[in-house]
Every structure is written in C-alpha cells, then in structure tokens.
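Listing S7. Sequence submitted for prediction.
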Amino acid sequence: MALDVYVGSLSRYYAGDWEGTAERVASDRTGRSGAQDRLKEAERLRPRVLAWRDALNQSLGANAPAAFDWNESLDTPHFAGRPGWDGFGSLVLWAAYTEHPALRRPPTLPEQWDYDAALMRSNAEGFRSRYSHLVRKVELWLPAAFPFTFEAEDIDGRRVVVGSAETLQRQLADLNNATWKVDDDEVAAWSRRAPLTDAPLEILARYAFSILSALARAAVDHRLPMKLDT
C-alpha cells in the first residue's frame, strides 16, 4: 500500500503542492492554472499553520525544550519519498525486535503488524524504547530536539502523535549501528529499487530505512517538519 513521507512547509503540504501524492498527479493535469491555484491555497493556509504552531508552543509551555519554529514561506524547499506501508511497517518491526531480542523476528511482515508482540512491548506503559520516535505511531516530526513524543491536534483537528526529527535521525542511526552497521553509501543504495510487497521483512525494512534516513536528514538540515501522508 502507498505511503508517502513529506518534508517541507506544512502550508505546502496541506495545499497539496508537493510531488508524490495522488492529488498532485491529478491536479497536474490542469496545467499552469492548477499550479497557481495550489500556490494560492498554500498562501491562504500559511496564517492558519502559524497560528497552529503558536498554539502548540503555548500548550507545551515549559515542557518544550525550545519554541518550535521553521520556515513556512512558499520558497522553502520540500522533499518526499515513498517507503510504502509494507516498508514502513517492516522497519517499525525491525526496530521493535531489535530491542526485544528474545522474541523471534518474523520472516515477512505480518498482516496485522501493528498488533505484533514485539511492537506492543515497545509501546507498553513504562517501557523506554530506544526507537520511540519510530515505533510509537508518530505521524509528524518537528524540527527541534526533544526526547519525548506527545499527542496533539494537527491543523485539521485530528489527534496525532508528534515526535522530533532530530531524535528520529539519531534513533535511525542507532538502529543501523545495532544491526546492519553499514555506511551511508550502502544505505543509499538500498532505496534504488523498490522491493516487492511480499519481500522478506529485512529487505523491506532496509528500503524504508534508506528513504526515512534521507528525509530525516533533510528535515534536520533544513529545519523543516516531516510528515507521514496517511
């Protein structure tokens, strides 16, 4: 199943003005007028995004290590990748089984992988996961360094789990060091060819790892949010 991951301004995301979505493909058929409409929509959404960010800062108060801040202008760069739900789920389970080595990792992604025993242990109350910003159903990673995840309303009023792009980047690097121990060149090579959906769990996990690592790096380097396109 398709799952895109986006890095960039949230105004652009909610306007649908980014590559990698079915909405963008469909709107491209309208040509120049469609592109102009998306830019206008992004500009219209920008004050709403800034107000949402201000409210988020106020709600966290002293719990936030620093005020959330990033560039919401229309000339901000943006990035996208498609790990797919099979790839993303495989990576999540790969991380969960890494911190629960007594459990036997499945050879392929289970159909109901979000109820997997290792993943449930990683999310159990009181357990301090080494990969919390990957395994705890995070949908939005903000460009700031903080160790915790938290639940909040997104711009559309949906309850989502929020994490840190910097912490995600570090935890992905820790996962590589704990398991594969490969360099950046080999990681990049993993994403050059998408595996079949019924590929072994590790192959799908590596593919998703390569995509998420590159996007987390872009989010940190450019100080931009990173979001699952669910």
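Caption to Listing S7: primary sequence and predicted structure tokens for the chain studied. The mean pLDDT is 93. DSSP finds nine helices and six strands in the chain.
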